[in-house]
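call fold(seq) -> tokens
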Amino acid sequence: MTHPRITFAPGQIFRSDFAAEWFGVIVGALIAALWALYVNFDLAVRWNDALFPCAAMFAVLIAHFIMSERASLVAEYFLLTVAATAVFGVVSYLSMTTARPLTDNVLLAADRAIGFNWLLHYRWLLHHPGTAKVLQIAYNSLVYQGLYFGVLFGIIGKRQNLQEMFWLVVIAGAFTSAGAALFPALGPFKAFGIKAEFLPVMEQLRSGDLHFALAKLTGVVSFPSFHTTMALLYIYGFRRAGSIGWAAAILNVVMLPAIPFFGGHYLVDMFGGAAVALVSVAIVRMWPATRILFALVRSDATLKSSGQLAEG
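ret:
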């Protein structure tokens, strides 16, 4: 009687389902490192900051060892997301270190020009705690949506969906960080003298005191609104997930009116975030067509070269 043989294949264990995406993270990390050196940005990294990444890496290796493609997709995408989030967090902080003048007056004037009274709506929310609570839950759901997206599409083996969402977020993050660098703003909480936990961080970055801890990084991008961008991108990303997609769409639509008041944004920040989402989707959707075009050009060049050789 023969028994099945279990073979140990190191190449199988240490492979990656997201090689191009990891390359993108590495490039982003190098850019962030060079930028940080240029502005003397000091980031404290402690040993316990590596606990989640190490646990995710171990889960990836185990999934590869047992040759579970779906578990591998979930675990590696989670690890990839953690790494990309850390890089984007640092880049978003660096984007606030430019010496460009604040644009709060311009953004606030734009809000008023379109008839949006931020302070009036904020005071209305203060007197309607039930509505405020619902909006806050929707606003805080962004992280959980990201985790659920990775689990859902990893379990059903949709690697292409995971790759698409990764590049959407990367491109959107690059645009919003560039916007924050070119048009820095502290937001309506500062404009109207309302306390917010992220305001001291933003003011610290503007003051030139660049000593921070990795575990305490928080959102500091004002214009364009990254939260708006992600709400629209998750509506797009879940669009073919049936009833789950409809639930995600409703959740993100509810999130939109929460963004100015829980994220400290002007309304025009949201317009900018919506534009970033549309451009990001257009770029990512254009890539397959670009690859096909390049392939056709190379094929045509090869045929012409072969024809010339034949004539010669």
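Strands lie at 42-44, 211-213.
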